[in-house]
Design a protein that fits this description.
3 helices, mainly beta
């Protein structure tokens, strides 16, 4: 999760992200409270990878953990941006890691952008190797949020406008052709509605939007939709996010669907054969389901990425008024053990993608920074290691072998877990706040701005 600070600019609110450097490592003697949950026929079957919903503030990137080494600080070098403008927004990498696409906004673009949208502008392309760049003036938009830039396998740019799609070679005038139905392009990713074995389908429909709450109905049918097997109506607080293809949860086995959160009943499991199962009372063996209106918080269930077919892990955490949150709980299906962890907050992504690590968050009393603790998921009752403090955000690459930290104008790129320095850069006076790895992992695109003014820079870093 990126935590953003405000700075004054023509945009009004500029999102800036800070990352701590100079963190210290250490091992904590924090202990867990571990209990064995009673055996039950309603215990959920193995989980599949957790799919975020609009009700869980996750990020498209993996956030992590480690501290900047002293040697990294000594190796930092000052760099200049590739491109500067009143506003810049990165769009995408080409699949061969040769081209980048990004939006450039003038002061007029910013002034004329809709009040509820991020600014638009003109689409630019740049070649990473030759540093050739160009403005594709035929592609302008009042908000970059309404246009997507994808790529074909042969390196052609696919510009998806609200009403039409163009395909062509970047920086080659006249090469774009208009496509009415280009194959293989998806502008939205639907949820996984079919069960893992393909025998059942789930559908969640909005029934009512009233007084800040959504009422949904989730129905499980046979895959051919001929027979309704289970149906449940549930309510949730309305929050920001996209609700296209919203399912409210995910399949966790061939016959069980997990609703991550409901307003009054907590997380629920819909079993094809057994009906609705309470995660709070049946799985975690709690006697009471907390209510937002009474206790000030509710409970959310988050499933871990799977490590094998025969076990799963499920976190139960608070949502609502943070000061009221209970301790986080963790369920182990392989032995039906329930742990009460010594933390009230999980990190933005509480499980590593490989299902090996558990990430917890303890908040600083002095500022809005964070302390990240890790532990192997299977190490029940084991020690927690503090791997960084004073943290605002961090990022891993896809396979978790490398990480990047940002603090104000400084960027550190290093390996994980060895913490071997790959590169260190100083972007002064730009504070950087967004990173994108190239598909081949050799480059980083970084956005930044000078706090307090409409001065944005786009940086390209090479390992």
């Amino acid at each position: 999760m990126f935590i953003r600070r405000q700075s004054l600019s023509l945009l009004g609110v500029i999102l800036v992200i800070l990352i701590l450097m100079g963190c210290r490592n250490g091992v904590s003697q924090l202990t867990d409270t571990t209990t064995a949950a009673p055996l039950s026929n309603s215990t959920v079957l193995p989980l599949r990878t957790y799919t975020p919903t609009p009700n869980h503030k996750t990020t498209p990137t993996i956030l992590h953990l480690s501290s900047v080494t002293p040697s990294a600080t000594k190796a930092i070098k000052l760099i200049s941006p590739w491109k500067v403008a009143p506003f810049i927004h990165f769009a995408s990498w080409s699949p061969d890691s040769q081209w980048i696409a990004f939006w450039v906004s003038s002061t007029d673009d910013i002034a004329s952008s809709p009040a509820d949208k991020m600014p638009g502008g003109t689409l630019y392309f740049a070649n990473i190797r030759t540093r050739q760049s160009c403005a594709e003036t035929q592609f302008t938009t009042p908000s970059y949020e309404t246009v997507k830039v994808h790529w074909s396998n042969d390196g052609r740019a696919i510009v998806i406008m609200p009403d039409v799609v163009y395909i062509g070679n970047p920086c080659q005038t006249g090469s774009y052709s208009q496509e009415t139905n280009p194959g293989g392009i998806e502008t939205q990713s639907p949820g996984q509605s079919l069960s893992p074995n393909g025998l059942y389908d789930v559908d969640t429909t909005l029934q009512l939007s009233e007084n800040g709450f959504f009422t949904f109905k989730t129905t499980i049918t046979t895959a051919d939709h001929v027979r309704v097997l289970q149906s449940v109506t549930w309510k949730i607080e309305q929050r920001e996010g996209r609700y296209e293809h919203f399912l409210g949860g995910e399949w966790i086995s061939s016959k069980q669907f997990l609703l991550n959160e409901t307003q009054t009943e907590g997380p629920l499991i819909i079993d094809v054969d057994k009906g609705v199962i309470s995660v709070v009372t049946k799985l975690f063996n709690l006697g009471k389901i907390p209510q937002m209106s009474v206790e000030g918080y509710g409970l959310v269930a988050i499933a871990a990425p799977k490590m094998d077919q025969n076990d799963y892990h499920l976190l139960l955490k608070g949502i609502g008024t943070e000061a009221s949150f209970p301790k986080v709980m963790l369920y182990h299906s392989e032995n039906r053990v329930v742990e009460t962890l010594p933390f009230s907050h999980v990190w933005s992504v509480p499980f590593s993608p490989d299902g090996q690590w558990l990430l917890m968050d303890s908040r600083s009393d002095l500022d809005d920074s964070h302390i990240i603790w890790i532990r192997p998921i299977e190490n029940i009752g084991g020690e927690w290691q503090q791997i960084t403090s004073g943290l605002y955000s961090a990022m891993w690459n896809d396979n978790w072998t490398e990480m990047v930290f940002i603090k104000d104008e400084n960027i550190i790129w290093q390996t994980f877990p060895e913490a071997r320095l790959i590169g260190g850069w100083d972007t002064n006076p730009y504070w950087t706040y967004s990173l994108e790895w190239s598909p081949n992992g050799q480059f980083l695109v970084v956005e930044g701005n000078v706090p307090g003014v409409a001065d944005y820079g786009l940086f390209v870093l090479e390992r």
